UniProtKB/TrEMBL annotation:
Organism whose genome encodes this protein: Synaphobranchus kaupii
Localization annotation: Membrane
Keyword Membrane attributed: yes
InterPro entries: FLVCR1-2_SLC49-like, MFS, MFS_dom, MFS_trans_sf
Positions of transmembrane segments: 45-65, 85-105, 112-130, 209-231, 264-286, 298-322, 334-352, 358-376, 435-459
Chief location bin: membrane
Protein name, as recorded: Major facilitator superfamily (MFS) profile domain-containing protein
Length: 490
């Protein structure tokens, strides 16, 4: 086993695997319990898969309309502001309900929260599809009923989006936590990627909105069935790590109080929340920003797809890296600095005509460095605030992003200016005036750069969860037995 010196300190390696302690799959349960060892279960991968499907399908519901905002506005007879609210409602609902769902995750458990979220997600997608059926009365057709379904999906998001950190902490061993969190978290932007690719294809020139909503409802049904029938317990019979044994050792209200008094966590809350908010704004407004300069919906969809695709690649790389090295702070600071530079470049290039290659490359870089921050920052929020419950620490971080998203969306739309003569515009919002996004995108870049500088200069913390686990290993080594970590077993 690794020496005590390796087990302690800020640069904790974390590679205390079964091979290093000489444990085999045949080790008896009684022996593991006697020596205080830990066990992992294969079913954790099934639960992770269900969380990924829920996260992905919910993200598709969120951004269904943004890549085809002008066509949806024309089809519904609504304004672009109303169509933007179909995405913005996710942020509005998240703010009041996130506290409730965070409490549920930390007190009632993972299973109940995921099942309830899956049913809300399915009900919302079904209501969205019903909203466009011509047989319904005019008083409830189209926008009001569509907004009702979107609101249910937004409520489902609050149950689903906090689960990756909780799942990783309760079901995965130390050397797999960041990877599990990355896989579950990145399923959300993959949903955004699918919406960016398939919404323009399905809607097309015929404005086939019903087809799009019907197809997008299918994964929500599958996810609901798998969650309801397949997830039978919220926690494993035996914990996978020392920190999992003491998860939620603080009460919910006491945990919130500790978070608000934690300087490092509050800096993370504001700066990473700012990044989440600006990524949300960028995803929602990308088509409207580009169409003014003559770029088509298809090209905007490709840029959104590159944004997400390279983001998932970057998150996978960084997730595996920090799982091996535990260098959460260094990885986050480097990524956020490079992301700020990409954001500045994109703000400038997006206001130029005939720069498809440059826009596509900068969208890719913005996603690559930006999305990789999110899962690592969620793990960092737990490390800086342990032993506060994982749902509370990651939940407040997400709430910060949602609140700032609402504020930024309102500000950015207010900063737009009508364009009297726009011969190159490809926007088709039913005769509505064309808007200039030059000032809003520059403000976006300024906000992101400010948040990045604040994080680089002021964020410092110790890894509290890793230190607690290292101390537990030391205590066990000096006691009557040795800590064990078994291989995958049922």
């Amino acid at each position: 086993m690794a020496s005590v010196g390796k087990a302690q300190g800020m640069e904790i390696n974390g590679d205390l695997r079964s091979e290093e302690v000489g444990i085999t799959a045949e080790t008896s349960q009684e022996t593991r319990e006697l020596l205080g060892g830990f066990k992992v279960y294969k079913r954790r991968w099934f639960i992770l898969s269900v969380v990924c499907l829920l996260n992905c399908s919910n993200a598709v519901q969120w951004l269904s309309f943004a890549p085809v905002a002008d066509q949806v506005a024309s089809y519904l007879g609504a304004s672009l502001d109303q169509v933007n609210w179909l995405s913005l409602v996710y942020m509005v609902v998240a703010v009041p309900f996130c506290f409730i769902t965070t409490w549920m995750l930390d007190t009632l458990g993972l299973r109940i929260s995921l099942i309830l979220g899956s049913w809300l997600n399915m009900a919302g997608s079904g209501l969205r599809f019903l909203s466009i059926l011509s047989s319904l009365p005019l008083s409830v057709r189209y926008f009001p009923l569509l907004m009702g379904g979107q609101t249910l999906c937004a409520l489902a998001q609050t149950f689903i989006v906090f689960s990756p950190t909780k799942l990783a902490a309760l079901w995965f061993p130390q050397h797999q936590r960041a990877t599990a969190n990355m896989i579950a978290s990145m399923s959300n932007p993959i949903g955004v990627l699918l919406a960016n690719i398939f919404s323009p294809i399905m809607v097309g020139q015929d404005m086939n909105i019903p087809l799009m909503l019907g197809i997008y409802a299918i994964p929500t049904v599958v996810a609901c069935i798998l969650a309801t029938l397949g997830i039978r317990e919220g926690v494993p019979p035996s914990p996978p790590s020392a920190s999992a044994e003491s998860s939620n050792s603080e009460s919910f209200l006491q945990g919130i109080k500790l978070l608000l008094m934690n300087r490092a966590y509050m800096i993370l809350l504001l700066c990473v929340g700012c990044g989440i908010a600006l990524f949300t704004c960028f995803s929602t407004l990308l088509e409207q920003i580009l169409c003014v300069k003559g770029y088509s919906n298809d090209f905007a969809g490709i840029c959104g797809a590159l944004f997400i695709l390279f983001g998932v690649v970057g998150a996978a790389f960084l997730g595996f890296y920090v799982d091996r090295t535990k260098k959460f702070i260094e990885a986050t600071k480097i990524s956020i600095a490079l992301c700020a530079l990409a954001c500045i470049g994109l703000a400038v290039v997006s206001q130029l005509r005939d720069q498809k290659a440059a826009v596509a490359i900068l969208c890719s870089l913005f996603g690559f460095f930006g999305f990789s921050i999110y899962p690592v920052a969620m793990e960092l929020s737990v490390e800086s605030s342990y032993p506060v419950g994982e749902a509370s620490s990651s939940g407040l971080l997400f709430i910060s992003g949602q609140i700032q998203s609402i504020v930024y969306m309102v500000i950015l739309q207010a900063l737009t200016q009508p364009i009297a003569d726009s011969p190159f515009s490809r926007c088709a919002a039913g005769g509505a005036e064309v808007l200039s996004w030059r000032v809003p995108v520059l403000v976006m870049a300024g906000l992101f750069s400010g948040g990045a500088c604040c994080f680089l200069l002021f964020f410092h913390t110790e890894y509290r969860r890793l230190r607690a686990e290292a101390d537990a290993v030391v205590a066990t080594e000096t006691g009557p037995g040795r800590a064990l970590c078994s291989r995958d077993m049922e």
